[in-house]
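Pilot study result, target chain (187 residues):
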Amino acid sequence: MTNQTPTQTQGQQPGQAPAPAAPAAAKGGSGAPPFPGAKPAVLGTLATVVSLVVLVALGEATGHLLMIAPLAATAMIVCSTPALPPAQPRNVVLGQLGSGALGLVAVALLGHSLWVAAVAAGLSVGLMLVLRAVHAPAAATAVLAVLQDPQPLRFLLLLGIGSVLLVLIGLVAAKAGAIAKYPSYWW
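Predicted structure:
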């Protein structure tokens, strides 16, 4: 049992105001995460470049566009922050496919417009939360589905292939030691 009042901290005299917390900058940082170091930064960057080049090469070889903007963001997340939830296979695949499907449904019901794209992107957030598969780049996938008018089955198939390829490239990069352990969990 202590004789301190509820607002009194250790080493503080009774009646004395508590010292304000030191700002993050005064503690030697801005509050941003620390720089991971040169080697992880370079290897994560190279792994991202390789994963995107693979998508382009496979797209060129098959005549199908695999390298879309949301998958470029996915590659960055998988290769530079592989331990975070948005990088995990469940989040990548379910987030991308769920948001892509939602965008296709939105355009089928409401047509093509920036308004519909905005609503689809917002609703994709709710869908990803329900699916427990939050993956920020997937909100852009919903926008893409509304504004680009892709063939639905082809779009979802290519989106799924691209998403799975990025997960597999992340797995290979982790096994090769280019990025940190990946995945933290599969599903």
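One observation from the pilot: Residues 96 and 138 are 5 Å apart (CA to CA). A full batch analysis is planned for the follow-on phase.
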